[in-house]
Write the structure tokens for this entry.
Amino acid sequence: MGRKVLVVDCDPQANATAGLGIDPSASGKNMYDVFMSGIDGFPRVALGDIIRKTASGIDLAPSHLDLVGAEPYLYHAAFPTGVLNEALADVKNQYSYIFIDTPPSLGQFVINGLYAADHVIVTLDSGSFALNGVTTLSTIFADIKNDLGKEIRPDMAIVSRWGEGSRQGCETEERTDLFTRIFHIFHKPPEPSVKEIQDAKEQKKEQERLLATLAEIRKRFPSVYTVPYSPAVYEAQKRGMPISHFAPDSSAGVVYKAIADEVMKWT
């Protein structure tokens, strides 16, 4: 959309880094060096010193597996929660949007990201434990309010891979195969087997669970999006490109475009 965007990857798994086409194992300064800058005895590395351009036009502050080793040191920093916020101060006026990617596990990187953020988007998958993650996050939000005085209210939830493993929300050739549809008009399909009947019952039960989970999530977030499972997402990741550049008209790409439109209304 022509906006200048920075992605700050604070997850040691470095999926955002790899997803934007940068090899996480490549040499060079990364977020480990930025976080360690606040520790006595380590060299000063500003966030601007590690930012790299990516093929999509998005700027990236890359992560590295070494970032795992930085977390124990953060507890000894003068203000552990504000290390990232202080680092962002040098570059935030250069960008329209800065996205902070945090790990899925609890710790200083998540708290640093939440403290630095103006808005919070919670990403969930459609698995059975999605609501457990929401409950845990609510506890973190309350702790940050009590300890730091900052109230955090998530603006949006994104449920990804919606319908994975079932026909719901899944892009398949079967849905668009005109020959198959015509064939079934003139030929009665065979009676389903016992296994097919059982599979259909299990699929229905899973869809009911998904809808019940989604209803609970909608109660807790002002805005909720479900991103359908799409092979295009994984192809985009392998090529190091955002879905908006690789397959914007895919089922997932259309939803992410709607998400981007809403996010742009926040400022």
Notes: The chain has twelve helices and seven strands. The chain has a mean pLDDT of 87. The chain has one domain: 5-172+211-263. The beta strands are 5-9, 52-53, 59-61, 97-101, 121-125, 156-162, 224-228.
